[in-house]
Design goal:
homodimer, alpha+beta, three-stranded antiparallel β-sheet, 3 strands, 13% strand, DNA-binding
DNA sequence: ATGCTACGTCAGTTGACACTTACGTAAGTG
DNA sequence: CACTTACGTAAGTGTCAACTGACGTAGCAT
């Protein structure tokens, strides 16, 4: 399930949206005014972020308030950690490889 | 510079490639045989991963050996941590500046 | 009911991306 | 030298994602 999150975070505007609603709630329209794209575009971005589990939606009257969802990033972070940090000797091995590569390159 | 890394990781095959060369070196051709796509496709994936700083390339004769580069993920992980855990709002302000600049530029 | 506000959604266009085939190239082998 | 191996690169194609403009809808007030 990390794929939707990664795909959501690739878009620069979606990352900016996340930063905007990281520690304060904002309505869709308020978010849209901060960007140069049209309001429907922001609405679609919010849908992508919501389906990725990265934000929460709360309805208040005619408005919809959004906020970043911290748990959404947890899965992504553990996946990222597993991909590289698993096991202990990997960094050492990589360093040895680089040393060997430098040597063979005649540096 | 997190954008190239994110863009590289969105592709499922590139993530599989990374997992393959996480703790062992592999030649481009050997990697290609593990997938159903053609060898040039894998070569293009490797170029994307290399430009994102996620892998290292080492030439040995006519072959090119690839391996995951642990440091490549460090930047991505700190960015991910800052996006949610940073209590000071520095990243948020930066994003707002970007959004405002984007808007004022009329993009 | 009428009107207004703050949204989401649909339809269509454009640009980016992954893929294929064909070609070019550097390093080793007879 | 020619020949093969192990690659990267170029050109073209199909697909998907982001955008715009038009439309539909829920909530509130008059």
């Amino acid at each position: 399930m990390i794929e939707p999150a990664l795909r959501a975070l690739v878009e620069p505007r979606r990352r900016e949206i996340l930063a905007l609603i990281r520690d304060r709630e904002l309505a869709a329209g308020e978010i849209a005014t901060r960007f140069s794209v049209t309001r429907p575009a922001i609405s679609q971005h919010l849908a992508v972020l919501r389906e990725a589990g990265l934000i929460t939606e709360r309805r208040a009257g005619t408005r919809r308030l959004y906020r970043a969802r911290p748990e959404g990033a947890a899965e992504l972070r553990t996946w990222l950690a597993d991909l590289w940090d698993d096991g202990l000797g990997r960094l050492k091995d990589a360093a040895e490889d680089e040393a060997r590569a430098d040597q063979e390159a005649g540096r």
